[in-house]
Design brief:
The chain is an all-alpha fold. It has 8 helices and no strands. The protein has helices at 6-17, 26-45, 50-66, 73-91, 100-103, 110-113, 125-149, 159-170. Helix 3 (50-66) packs across helix 4 and helix 4 crosses helix 7. It starts with 5 loop residues before the first helix and ends with a helix.
Amino acid sequence: MYTDYAGDIIETFFEDEQVPLLAVTSEQLDMRNDLVKLMVTFGKNKEFCVSTIHLAVCFFDIYINEYELSDSSEHQKFVSLVTLLLAAKSEDVDDKIPSIKDLLFAVDLSDELGIDLRFQSNYTEEEVRKSFDSYASLYCKIEFLIFEAIHFNTIRPTPVNFIQAFQNILVTPD
């Protein structure tokens, strides 16, 4: 940040940070608050950095501006956690990023899949395989919709990025 380009970098941050105001119904806004809490809790549990959680909320806001959330609370949770994993893929250390199988234990998609994959021992191997294929397909579909909503731009500055940039400028060794 101490280069001749520091001003240009900050200006680019401001341009890229522009996110449209949320144009959602009050019901979706209420859901959003609960889902953001879920992302924060899950992110802290997985020891994601703060910028990952902020980026996930940014992605989620853009997504709900573009698409209406399902009425299913478990599906809503799934979408919010997929946005968190997507943010983690671009912000966090690879070792911390959970697999999509880890989402199985956080969200009950048994209504959509036909079986509850959290209790795989209750089903035949064939039922589990088919349901997991459906689950992976659903994950890919949601991730693609999020990518579309954010126009495949996973590098977005968040308030945390600004704080870090200005902190580096303001705290100088003397």
